[in-house]
Amino acid sequence: MENHGFYHGSSNHGHTNEGSCPVNAFEHPFGHPDHRPRRHRLGFGNRLRRNSNKKEKPFEILVFELDYKNFDQSPKISTETAKYYFSKELNIHQECPIESIDQLNKIYKRKLSRKNGKTKLFISLHGVADAQEFFYGVKPNFLIEGIGMKQMLRFDVYFNRKLVYKIIELNIKSFLKRFRRGFKLITSNEKYQTEANWESSFNIWDKLNKVPNLNLILNFDLGHIRFINEKSFFDLLANLIDINDLEELSQDEILYILSPTFVFLGEKYGHDSLTYKFVKRIIGDYIVYLSHNYDTTVILYPAMNPKDKEDEKIQPFPNDDNANRRSLIEHIPQSSSYVSCFINEEICKFKTSNCNSKGICVETTSGCWQCLCSSVFNEETSITTSWSGFDCSTEEQSLDRNAFSWSSLGYIIRILGGIKFLIDISGESIFY
């Protein structure tokens, strides 16, 4: 995107509502907000209830564009303005909200010094505490303001999913290549069509040793990483390192990295722990290193403390029509974490790592999504392996009693038959 000028207004191609963007199916899945069915305007209507005495809390998403000039003050924009801004950055046509012009002008003043010719790299990190200090006190280029976790997650889905598929839809030759969980590339380079997905991140030590001058980049002893017990951290670090393995990337290609690392670290160690702060330093330093070669945008979503999570918890109404569906997951124990019932399939997959690939997210009641865990029966050993838990992470093995009983009976019959056969051959019988 090479539009360095300021916004002075927007053309009115189609219907507008007091200066807002024209309505289209992509932006409003239920139609225009003023013409939606009442149950949608009320946010699922009587299908869900929110704790009535709790107020949704405001949030701030920090956006760092590491190639752009930084000022002392960070403009604040709404989620709708942010959607328009990123759509424009990715060359997707969308009408500019009139009320957003002043906000957008403040952002574009610092884009005059932009470096061209680099591949775009978007990094979205959830659950970042003290995000203002992520890059050692460097101010974010702008902040996205909103109210409630649902609105924040909707923006995340818009940015990391809807925009991605819209880009591919508008560029016929482009396709989406997923290399590893949390890392995808939008490209038209046919060589990536047949390239295999990247190997597991468990060989992270080999990757770290191959990075030239890594000790100078991160300025710490690599041995300390061995004490971090969080797989999502190694996945994120491996994804950042493996970016350099991609060759011949052009400025038309787009890299996406999405990670819940800091969500899991915060829940496991706490936001004030040395481990949490150490990982922030590692990831922040390496992203700065990558920004020399990529047009890097970092989006930091705020950490939610336990009280905030409880405020945002959504309780489904019981529904007798769904009794049969609920019975399918009665064996799933309640999570010890703050929620095991998710408001939609996207959040269910994100929070459970797609049920750890051991199940699927299903709608058990209206507006309540949970993991339906799978089981595998081994015919040779008669052992059934089942997965349970809110994220299908608990493995259980059981022996099929019926199979065991019939197998034992079969062996006994064979033994008796063999004995009788041997006795009959000798002309004598013990069965008289």
Overview of this structure, please?
Residues 9-19 have a biased composition (Polar residues). Residues 1-20 are annotated as: Disordered. Residues 341-428 form the Vacuolar sorting protein Vps3844 C-terminal domain. InterPro entries: Archenteron_Induction-Rel, Vps3844_C. By secondary structure, the chain is of the alpha+beta class. The protein folds into 2 domains: 33-307, no CATH class; 313-399, no CATH class. It is built from 13 helices and 15 strands. The strands form 4 sheets. An 8-stranded mixed β-sheet has the order 3-5-2-9-4-8-7-6, with helices on both faces. Strands 13-14-15 form a 3-stranded antiparallel β-sheet. Strands 1-10 form a two-stranded antiparallel sheet. A hairpin with a 2-residue loop joins strand 6 and strand 7 (183-187). The longest helix has 25 residues, at 401-425. The model is unreliable at 1-53, 306-339 and 428-432 (pLDDT under 50).
What's the number of helices? 13
Low-confidence runs (pLDDT<50, min 5 residues)? 1-53, 306-339, 428-432
Strand order of the largest sheet: 3-5-2-9-4-8-7-6
Can you summarize the main beta sheet?
Answer: 8 strands, mixed
Secondary-structure class:
alpha+beta
Number of domains: 2
Task: Specify Rg, calculated over alpha carbons.
Answer: 28 Å
N-to-C terminal Cα separation, in Å? 97 Å
Given the C-alpha coordinates, what overall shape results?
Answer: elongated
Helical content stands at 25-40%
Question: Order of SSEs, N→C?
Answer: HEEEHHEEHEEHHHEHHEHEHHEEEEEH
Provide mean pLDDT, rounded: 70
Could you tell me the strand content as a percent range?
15-25%
What's the total number of strands? 15
Biased composition (Polar residues): 9-19
Protein name: Vacuolar sorting protein Vps3844 C-terminal domain-containing protein
Domain Vacuolar sorting protein Vps3844 C-terminal: 341-428
Region (Disordered): 1-20
